[in-house]
Design brief:
The chain has 4 helices and 11 strands, in the order H-E-E-H-E-E-E-E-H-H-E-E-E-E-E. The chain is an alpha+beta fold. Strand 8 and strand 9 form a beta hairpin.
Length: 190
């Protein structure tokens, strides 16, 4: 039964990843001089002025160089995501005491925040992060999000960076990796 469920989830993720890479359901709006609303409160994406990864991401000295500010979203990401897998409930509990660069206040990212790191131009099985990103030890392509599955409270959404950044349902009983995030307010930039 577990093998069948794993196979179903894996095949679904592969199909979804292929559709995302092919551009189906990508939601791309025509380019223009005006910004495009994003899923993040108060954020607007301007597709005409896409930032290169070297301009988009800033390693933060205030976090002992262990965190990265994403100028596109204003979020601060852990520079080196967790290398061990944990169940979703454990990840939620761990965030209360998580310390990165001497700073607390970390949390699981929402699905829209996690997918904001995806570079849709990277074809599977490549790691779907922007070229030149500063993140280290991104060993696992699958990371938890804080976004629960409405239809099935036994699971949560995750992002599969190895399949073009596709999103997939993962049972809360499974263990995957965590990429901590925090809001970017009061962040000192160089």
């Amino acid at each position: 039964m577990k093998a069948r469920r794993f196979l179903t989830v894996t095949l679904g993720a592969l199909v979804l990843g292929g559709l995302l890479v092919a551009g189906c359901g990508s939601g791309d709006a025509p380019t223009g001089s005006q910004g495009v609303p994003s899923d993040l409160p108060g954020a607007t994406q301007n597709r005409d002025k896409a930032l290169l990864a070297t301009q988009r991401f800033v390693i933060l000295q205030a976090f002992t160089n262990d965190a990265v500010l994403d100028k596109k979203t204003g979020l601060v990401w852990e520079k080196s995501p967790q290398t061990t897998s944990v169940m979703w409930n454990m990840a939620r509990r761990t965030c209360l005491e998580k310390n990165v660069g001497g700073q607390k206040g970390w949390r699981l990212p929402f699905l829209q925040e996690l997918t904001s790191l995806v570079d849709p131009s990277v074809a599977p099985p490549g790691l779907a992060l922007p070229s030149g990103h500063p993140f280290l030890v991104v060993q696992s392509p699958v990371f938890w999000s804080a976004t629960r599955v409405d239809e099935d409270p036994r699971g949560s959404w995750s992002v599969h960076f190895g399949l073009g950044g596709g999103t997939t349902f993962i049972s809360l009983a499974h263990s995957v990796r965590v990429w901590w995030v925090r809001d970017g307010m009061d962040v000192d930039q160089p």
